[in-house]
Each structure stands twice: as C-alpha cells, then as structure tokens.
C-alpha cells in the first residue's frame, strides 16, 4: 500500500461508501439506458409516441390482442438511426376483442377499454392488411378464390384468399403486453419512462459541460491574473448569483423560445457561477506554490501554466461540484418541463409526464402515472448527490492518511 497513487487511494475510499457506489451504479445504468433505450423499449417508435386511444389509462400488466395492418411507403432506417432515433411503425395497430373472416375481408370487434363493452364491428380487406392496398380499383376477385392486386410500384400480385387468411392468422395478430400500463393517450408508460431518461441525462450532461466550460474559464482567469480581471469576474458572479436560478432559467428560455436545446443552454448558462467561485478560490492558493514560479522562470506561457499545471491540481473539487450541478440540472429540467417551457410534446420528459398526469394522484388505481416519473427524477437526482458526497469525502485532505 505504500506506493499506492493518490488516485487509487481516493477510489478505494470512494468504494467504501455504499451510498456513493449505489448512486454510481444508478448513474451508469441511466447512461446506458439513455444511449440504448430504443433497443430495449417495447415501443421503439421515435419518442415512444405510438398512440392508441382505445387502450388509454390501462393498469400495469395490461395485455391486449393487436391487429397489424401494413402501411404504405415505409422507409427502413439505417442501423445507427434505429439505435439513436428509433424507427417508424411498419404497421397500424388496432386493439381488438374478436375477429372472423368473410371471404376477402376481415371483420373484427374493436377493443373499447371497457371489459363489459362489445365494441363496434369494423371491416377491412385482406389486401389492405397484408400489402397496404386499399383502393378498390387495384383489387379484383375473379371468383376462383384468388385475389389479383396491383401494388404501388405497378407489380401485379396473385394470392389465394385462403393463403392470405392463414398468413394473417400467423403474422398479423400479436399479443401486446404493457408492463406499466398506458397513459391517457394509450402510449406504453414503460417506453415513455425509458425514453425520458435520454432527455433528462442529455440535458444534465450538456448543461454541466457548458457550466464547466464557462465557470472554469472565468474562475481560472480571475484567480490567476487577479487585479481588475478578478474584480470584473467577481462582479459578474455576484450579479448572476443574486438572481434566483429558476427565474433566470425561465427568462432565458422565454427569450430563446421553448424547446429541448434551449433548456440545456439556459440551465448551463446559469450554473457556472458556483464552478467559477470554487476554481477561483483554489487557484488563489495554488498560484503561490513553487511549481507555478518554476513555470514562469522557464518561460512557459500563462495559458500553459493554467491548463497544464494548475487546473489538473483542482480537478477533484471541480468534479464534486459538477456532480452537484448535474443533480440540480435534473431537477431544473423536470421543473421547466412541468411548467410547459421545457421539452415540448411529444418528446418524453419526466417533468412533462408528471404535468400530464398529476390530476390522477387522488385516484388510487391511476396515481402511478405521476408517481413513477417522480420516483425516476428523485432517484437520479439522489444518485448524483450520493456520488458528489462520496467524492467530497474521498478527496478530503483529512482522509488522506497513508495506510501502511
């Protein structure tokens, strides 16, 4: 243990903090979900926005039979597009109770959401279900149990009605499960929660990077050069610090407009103050040490001394404040989306999900619609708080005791 590096000692002390390790695990899981959410979501359409009003507000564990009807002009996305943006539906989905075939048509009873209701009967052609052909002038039935269809590209398709019926039974009926139920628009709640992880993590990450860039730059300039530079930066810090963060974010968002990009820019441009104060205070002490004077004597430029020699020595406190800012960014994004000036529909945001469903809190069987996204916000914010506290304790000089 004598030759153990400071970084390894900090990591070992950090691992002894069970809450910090738990928080780090949740953060790692959140980042993995944010990157690969479209590969694991039941609804992998863009923004998990597959609506079906006939199955709205269904309880967790809900299961229904779906009829898949082919869409026209479906474009197959690239592999990377599927991972990062999802893919559009190849089929329209209809929740049904029962069905029967009537020669070249399928007759089905709609699912209405009420177990006691029968639902209206609907008729749809087999050609529409399998090939997406719904124009009568493109479908002929010679009378020998065969359909002759003209596709959009002009291709003539000959198909037996019995073969089509067997194919539809096998391929166009699925049983769809909703582990967490559906929301007021019939969208899969589990998919919306998973997709909302990407929105929250993206806003937090980009906002923290913006705040670090601005805060480290201003703090380093003020701490290293002092004098009038320090006075100007300190004045700017005090001005921004005196304005309530949420009000400043709302003002910036209203000026820039509503939207996803505006949120992380607004949040990042208001969270740099604490970073700048910490960097400034740390550099005040470090700039008087011998290695800084040695750099000046060797003729190094100020930029090299700051970025290659001073900033690496204050990396620990900056990481701690970055973790704290990430937690604050998660809460700010949720608050802005709840107020309607954050991520705009249909983009899945945990704050917007609470806004859409907070009225169900008083209904026991539907309260989970607002509670689940609230729990997700709480867990992610607490995870960053745990990690920040764990890093602070691990880096604390009082704990830097060499173990022999």
Walk me through the structure.
The protein is α+β, with helices and mostly antiparallel strands and 404 residues long. It folds into 2 domains: 239 residues, Orthogonal Bundle (MetI-like fold), CATH 1.10.3720.10; 117 residues, no CATH class. 55% of the residues lie in helices and 12% in strands. It contains 15 helices and 8 strands.
* Count of domains: 2
CATH topology category name of the largest domain: MetI-like fold
**Oligomerization:** single chain
Report the CATH C-level class of the largest domain: Mainly Alpha
The H-and-E topology, N to C, reads as: HHEHEEEHEEEHEHHHHHHHHHH
Percent range for β-strand residues: 5-15%
Q: Gap between N and C termini, in Å?
A: 6 Å
The pLDDT mean sits at 87
> What gyration radius follows from the Cα positions, in whole Å?
29 Å
**CATH-level-2 architecture of the largest domain:** Orthogonal Bundle
Stretches with pLDDT under 50, minimum 5 residues: 399-404
Largest sheet: 5 strands, antiparallel
| Spatial shape | elongated
Major sheet: arrangement of strands: 4-3-2-1-8
């Amino acid at each position: 243990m004598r030759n153990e590096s400071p970084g390894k000692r900090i990591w070992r002390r950090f691992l002894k903090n069970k809450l910090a390790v738990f928080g780090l695990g949740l953060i790692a899981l959140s980042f993995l979900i944010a990157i690969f959410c479209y590969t694991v979501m039941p609804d992998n359409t863009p923004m998990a926005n597959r609506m079906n009003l006939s199955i709205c507000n269904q309880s967790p564990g809900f299961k229904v039979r779906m009829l898949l009807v082919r869409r026209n002009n479906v474009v197959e996305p690239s592999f990377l597009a599927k991972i990062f943006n999802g893919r559009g539906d190849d089929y329209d989905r209809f929740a049904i109770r029962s069905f029967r075939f009537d020669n070249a048509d399928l007759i089905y009873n709609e699912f209405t959401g009420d177990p006691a209701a029968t639902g209206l009967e609907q008729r749809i052609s087999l050609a529409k279900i399998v090939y997406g052909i719904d124009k009568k002038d493109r479908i002929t039935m010679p009378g020998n149990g065969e359909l002759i269809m003209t596709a959009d590209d002009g291709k003539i398709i000959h198909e037996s009605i019995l073969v089509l019926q067997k194919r539809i039974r096998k391929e166009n009926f699925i049983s769809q499960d909703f582990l967490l139920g559906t929301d007021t628009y019939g969208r899969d709640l589990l998919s919306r929660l998973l997709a909302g992880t990407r929105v929250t993590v993206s806003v937090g990450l980009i906002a923290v990077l913006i705040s670090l860039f601005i805060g480290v730059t201003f703090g380093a300039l003020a701490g290293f050069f002092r004098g009038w530079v320090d006075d100007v930066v300190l004045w700017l810090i005090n001005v921004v610090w005196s304005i309530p963060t949420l009000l400043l974010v709302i003002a910036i968002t209203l000026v820039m407009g509503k939207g996803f990009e505006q949120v992380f820019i607004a949040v990042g441009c208001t969270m740099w103050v604490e970073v700048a104060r910490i960097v400034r205070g740390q550099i005040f002490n470090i700039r008087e040490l011998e290695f800084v004077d040695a750099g000046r004597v060797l003729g190094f430029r100020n930029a090299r001394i700051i970025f290659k020699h001073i900033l690496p020595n204050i990396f620990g406190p900056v990481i701690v404040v970055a973790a704290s800012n990430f937690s604050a960014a998660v809460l700010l994004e949720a608050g802005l989306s709840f107020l309607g000036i954050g991520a705009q529909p249909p983009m899945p945001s945990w704050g917007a999900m609470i806004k859409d469903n907070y009225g169900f809190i008083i209904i026991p069987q539907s309260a989970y619609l607002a509670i689940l996204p609230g729990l997700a916000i709480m867990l992610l914010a607490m995870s960053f708080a745990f990690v920040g506290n764990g890093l602070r304790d691990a880096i604390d000089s009082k704990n830097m005791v060499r173990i022999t």
